[in-house]
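chain below, 476 aa
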Amino acid sequence: MGFTSVNRRDVMKRSAAVGLLAVPGAAALSSCATGGDDDGDKAEKGDKTKKNPLGVKEDADLQVYIFNGGYDDKYAQFVTDMYGDRFGDATTDQKATEKIATQVQPRLVKGDPPDVVNNSGADNMNAGKVIKNKQAADLTELLDAPSWDDPNVKVRDTLIPGVEEMGAFGADGCYQLNIASTIYGNWYSDKMLTETLESDYPKTWDEMLAVCKKAKAKGIHGWTYPGGHPRYMLFSMFAMFAQAGGREVIEAMDYLEPGAWKHDAVKSVFEAFEELVAKKYVLTGFDGKEAHIEMQTAWTKGKALFVPDGSWVENEAKDTTPKDFRMAVGATPSLDKGDKLPFGTLYSPPGEPFLVPAKADNVRGGMEWLRMMYSRKAARNLFKQVSVMPVVKGAIDGMSLPPGVASSQKAVKAAGKNIVIAFWKEWYREMFDEDFNNVMGKFMLGDMSVKEAMDTMEKATARVAKDPDVEKVKRS
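prediction:
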């Protein structure tokens, strides 16, 4: 799903220089610092001024499509209203849907797409293919534009590292931008862990097994996951791959290298979770259409201690979460003293992607909408609405934080430079959505051995690597 070769060193020089999140050594994407001005607007261009740096036509209408999932669409309506206030002669139209690809993809093909698309959810579009087909506008001009809050600071300089890099997909330019800082890991109730089980968060796998044993004695499962979406297990396993084997292991996965999924570190992580299954510490089920909601509800009702999840869970599960639940996220425990990276290593990529279709009626309006999204007031509203850390640096400083966000910020700070990102999950999406999902579906039920799981992912890697129809991201 990538494009061309990647110059990771250039990416990392910029990423390491600024912001809260660092992604040193990660297999990052090529820079978004280049690109042309051929945006394909159907609307006439307006005059560029200090107030209108992107030259939006004042009366050009704007249509926005938002994924109606864990964040719903109120945070986006806030920005759409900002746009309407700024461009009073324009008509704005925001639509919320769970079927982004189903509803938007045909319009891309017809050449009549909306102006902004929140390309998220289970039915999202394959971003790599959209970019390859030249259906996404290059957002470099947006990144180079003055930020909403300070005309002396470019938009790109207000964003945490990783946002720009995630949107390049190996090509010159930047085609997709994220708005949220996603924290993956082992989510749990601090009240259940510290009061019900009288335990500390496990920093080693032996401690994890001990906590699960104590939970089982009290009729509580140590773990659960959505049986309908077993790929969620990567949210807990990925940082363990990196901890056990170092960055070279996860980079080998990113670059589809032979043997990546047969590394001893990968084996040790699978064996650790195999023990959870064998000891019946895992609550299974939740196979329905809303499997993740079913799982989260069982979790907030106290049926399980740990779930593999992302930081959207605090908002998504808010209706069933007790007030004294004290939601928290923990980094993946260390397997042994031979781990290459320390406890605290965190899987934390930018998330919740947006793109502007290249053939939209109002491309410049779409970019302006995103410029507004990256304003401090929109970022703070995003946080207030959905309890997620925005990617705008310093946006929520001084604000009162709910337990999950406070725990997320603590985890990020503890991780420091030890932040990892599963780029293969983004570049070769079908490997995650189909291959890894199918593997974990069988593995977590005890129907697939460690060797079979590793062999299957190794074969999937080889298949994708040899597929001439899949564009590869290559090492520089």
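The mean pLDDT is 89. The first strand starts at residue 62 and ends at 67.
thats it, cya
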